[in-house]
Amino acid sequence: MSLLEQVVRVAPLMHKMVLCFEEDFTLGVTNREKFLTYIAGQSLRFGLSVDDPIREGSLANFILKNKKPITKVMDSSVYGVAYVAGALPIEEDGAVCGALVFGVSLDRQNKLAQIAQHLSDIVEEVSAQSRAMQEGSESLSSHSERLYQTMQLMQDRLHATFAVLKSISQIARQSEVLGLNASIEAARAGEHGKGFSIVAGEMRRLALHSSNLAKDISDKLSFLQNEMASLSNMVLDSKNLSNQQAQGIVQLASSIHEVTEEALHLQQMSQIQGK
To answer: Where does the Methyl-accepting transducer domain lie (predicted)?
Structure first.
């Protein structure tokens, strides 16, 4: 039995062996003129049959002329599916007596490449959004910090205002006491103290009015101070939350970078270069 006949005989076994690793694989054996056997793949069906002649320009024809192996990536324009085509010369007694030709579908690899590209596009979009969120979060944190400092300054000014109002209240009380004493002295002076009695009464009235105004202002400022303290706490919470969000976005960016690396790795794995 010649070597060529032996290759034809074991061709079905070789086809089954390759199917353990590739779902779509086609195999054929030729002599120098025609196909001796052809086993079609799942989608790689080239319409070949036993005894079909070797076509000019085919891989088998190239092998018989050049006497060296060849591997070539074929796009889907030929048979509707992308595949890797290859051929090996069969030599016996120092001469090429035939060729072993085969094809492996790239459909799965192409789908993997498409998925990897889609994943890469999604990751890039999410990455861009995360960068924008990080910038916004950092800007918000900066604004919150400035607002918090402004609120603290306003509270310091309120404390100073309370000190002024306290002095006004003390002066008003003292003026009221002086007015009362003046009224007493005016009463003792009798007819001569009537004019002074009117001035003393007016002084007491103004002192009481000033005291009431100071108390009213103090009450309103106390309410404002409480509201500002509450607002200051909310601003501080917002600042802390912004900082936490910024840190979370940094961690997210790191994870996105890792996913990007994996997507690129998938793309590299899906690429098969023809020789």
So the answer is: 110-275
pLDDT of residue 163: 78
Choice among 70-84, 113-127, 212-226 with the minimum mean pLDDT: 113-127
Distance (Å, whole) CA 143 – CA 67: 75
The C-alpha angle 266, 270, 275, rounded to 5 degrees, equals: 140
Sequence-distant (≥ 6) Cβ neighbours of residue 147 within 8 angstroms: 235
Cα 138 to Cα 244: distance, rounded to the nearest angstrom: 10
- Of 49 and 199, the structure prediction assigns the larger pLDDT to 49
CA-atom Rg of the chain in angstroms: 48
* Residue 117 forms part of a structural domain: yes
Average pLDDT, the chain: 76
C-alpha–C-alpha distance, residues 4 and 46, integer Å:
22
123 and 250 belong to one structural domain? yes
Q: Give the DSSP H/E element, type plus range, for residue 35.
A: strand 35-39
Does the model's pTM come out above 0.70?
no
Sign of CA dihedral 111, 112, 113, 117: positive
* Dihedral of alpha carbons 3, 6, 11, 17, sign: negative
Across 146-170, average pLDDT: 77
In this structure, the answer to whether residues 90 and 147 fall within a common structural domain is no
